[in-house]
Amino acid sequence: MLDIVKASAGSGKTHELTGQYISMLFKESPYPYTNYKSILAVTFTNKATAQMKERILKELYKLSENPQESDYYEKLLQTPLVRKKSENRRTEFIKEHSANLLISILNDYTYFNVSTIDKFFQKVMRSFARELGQYVSYNVELSHDEILKVAIDLVYNSVGQNKKLLDKLTYISLEKIEEGKDWNVAELISDLANELFKERFKILKNSAGGEWPEEKDIEEVDLINKNIIRKYRKRKKEIGEKGLAIMSKWGLKPSDYINSSRSPFNIFQKLAEGKLPGLTATFKKLVGVESWYSRTSPLKETIIASANDGLMDLVMELIEDKDAPRYMLAVGLKQSMNVLSVLRDIEEKVQEYCREQNMVVLSETTQFLSQIIEGNDTPFIYERMGGCIDNYLLDEFQDTSVMQWRNFFPLVKEGVDNGYNSLVVGDVKQSIYRWRGSDMSLLNTKISEDFAGSNVRNRSLEYNWRSSENVINFNNLVFGYVHKLLSNDKTLSDDSLGQIYKDYFQKIDSSRTPSPGHVYVKFFDKDNTEARKMRNFECVHAEFLDSVAKLLEGGYSQGDIAVLVRDNKEGMIVSKLLIEAGYEIVTDDALSVAGSQAVQRAIAYLRNINDPSDSIATFLTGRYEPFEIKERTLYNIFEEIFASMGELATRQLPYVTTFLDKVIDYTAKNGSDIDGFLKWWDIHSDKINICASDGKDAIKVMTIHKSNGLEFKAVILPFMDGNFKNIKGYKWIIPDIEPYNKLPFIPVNLKPDLANTPLAEIYNSEAEIFKIDVCNLCYVAFTRAIEQLVVIAYNKENHFGKVLYDALAENKMLVEDTFEVGSWEKPENKIEGEKKPQHDGLMEEDLPQFVSIPVGDRLKIAFKGGEFFNSPKENSSRIKGIVLHDIMSGVITLEDVKSVVAKAVEEGKIEFSEKDAVCSFITKKVESVSELHWFDSTYKVLSEVSIILPDGINYRPDRIMFGENEVIIIDYKFSDNRENKYRRQVQNYIWLLKKMGYVNVRGYLWYNDGIEEVEYLA
Fold first, then answer.
1. Which residue stretches of 562-652 are H helix?
2. What is the pLDDT of residues 67-102, one digit of tens each?
3. Model pTM greater than 0.70?
4. Which of 394, 369, 384, 382 is nearest to 450 (CA)?
5. Are residues 443 and 424 in contact, defined by beta-carbon separation less than 8 angstroms?
């Protein structure tokens, strides 16, 4: 059976998931103590994964010690496995079974399958690495930012050899200048290029055939599109000129008509100047000539004559404007036409770069798996995964994307069809990540449709266990009103959208005695005039700070309070207000490693080491005490730099240690290349934060998106706005309108003007969903509060603040634009009758010092080579061979040896102390074959280049050299062991080159003690 559970905020979702998981552990099976191996629980964050694992293990421990104390005891008594036991034996059985399960899981933790959705998909993907054309050892890149930057740079660098690309970029820049915007197209290109990694684009591209449009088709449609724009503007200019000519013929000017100097006929002058002003309401009423003049106008007859002379026809053409929708569409798609071919080039560079780096972007994983899983039998998928999952528990299902569900569906369906239970938990009202690819319709309707006819149960968790009574009642009132609005909204094209809030109501458990809680809502008008706007801002700021002060006076500590904002801009305003008022705060910016003075100084030192001519880096490093860098590996360089800082590094130890952890991660993947690290740092530094301590007594400032899943005793929303009309971004479509249907797909910029074009249906559909997005964001924000909810809102049309105002006004709950219920006082203070002393936010404790061990005694990073020349370990020869193969791949001529070995040191393949020995070893080896001219530029060399057969099998000889009439293949063997398998390998290489058309091909094995020519057996 598939159990679909709708879990509103605070309804005990984790409790439900844990209960279902533990019940599944008590299912009947041949090996009951390993049931956990056949259960997969999937969450969306590492934190949620850790919490769920901890919860399950704690409950198993409790069940193994005293089962009756567990919330799940009664549930387990109803499981078939327990009911088989005699009644007086059941409790003891639960105790014993739980203990055995706990021991099994702890001793076989790898198969405790509670993971993030990305981690699970990565595990499956590695099982299909060969089918996907990837090495099993491919690297996973969490963010596509760096890859995208490289790809865009590669495209820009090709401008010199690509005149069409140059012309397009120039045209886009000129268009931006005409619109009064910055000429630089980098931001526009980057924004649209980000769309390439989004699932909605991938799905649409696949459904359109998977191929980008041809350049000739793009140019053809672009030309037609420009002609539509040009003809429309030309016609409007002609109308302006003809209108002025008719007026002049009759001795009239625009001010002679109705409203004098403000006459609507001034539009003809603007049109004649090449401008395209919008029609005023007054102009739209000019359908009858009697509205063209005032009663007392002495020019009445002349004006009527001008109307009959053709001016009325021009006015009606402007009012009806039949060509406007087509023109507005052309203008809306003009930008898309210009960048489409650029995006195609960028995607090609992205794929090329990923192949070269043996890299897969995390966001690509879902698509790769979709290509493999679609159309295959589920048992085959199970077999390749190396195990069989019977039960699935999918958490936060409202955040699941279409492709993710496509990948999960055959697995879940197989389990349900075979009689195994699975669970899906989510809340459509908390779907706020649509911009990441989540699709609320999956939980809202689609999953039930997919399992139509199967054993499915839909239910809701009715009680709220998080919030206080007043907070719950307030949210029931507000979102009940939202449900009424959506249910009665006849403009919604999808009826299911109107039912998203049908389960808004949450019950309060009468058996508990929580604090009644407190809700305070204050409304302000939002005016467009600058003076009024500034006064409102000042009032809002004062109201916000007053709310913080009241909470602290009521006994709450700073650490109890969370301020939730929509974006970083609002966060900066709030943070500034709080800091100026003397409060301690914790924000993402405050936790940014890049903001640490110690880290900034270390980066400046590294820039100076990398480029002594960098004047800024030289200036910064010159301000500090100089010291000698003795190490050349990246981690040890930084460790020395921080050691030189003394007290500063100690004061900022959390930032320093987090930074060094990132350095280790970087070098593990990319080696110790300094220049490469600095480029990586410039791209990723703003995303690296330290983990905040929950014990810090400071006000938390965070975005609503980041607060999802969290709870706080007191929540303040200082800028509750929620503009229903603020739609942004792009939507990819498969066009069905000429001439755009010649292209398989195009991106559409979601601007309000689209509502008046042939794409109105698409825009209106997006507008409807965006309205739900705004409501959902507000729902998440309102439901984070446990005891205190403070909302400072703007009462303005087409904003959620207006909905909130109307909900309270309808129930007559507003007093002078204010709603309040409950007390600002903390419950325990109220009960005890006294206030607890306030913490000043400072904590006295001894910080650990940053310790540096002298060079020579310190622990060092494990190198890829790891002192292989003198290593007594049995596998040292294997390690040596791997490292020397890497180094030799870069040696084309004898002159390359020193630079290639130096690079190997920087990349952490060998230690600095071994540099000379390795250099000597390779130099002697190369010089030993000098008479063969292998390393003196006689031959054209291909090093470590793959030969790919039609069936996808990949071969990679170490070195192929092309002479005038011969081809030589060399395979390095850094040992003295001569085996037939090595000869067969080279013989296969020779066969491949001969199949490629080369006649005179010879192959050699190069051992430590000399070379051996391999005889080719035809």
1. 568-580, 597-610, 615-622, 634-645, 647-651
2. 999 999 999 999 989 999 998 999 999 999 999 999
3. yes
4. 394
5. yes
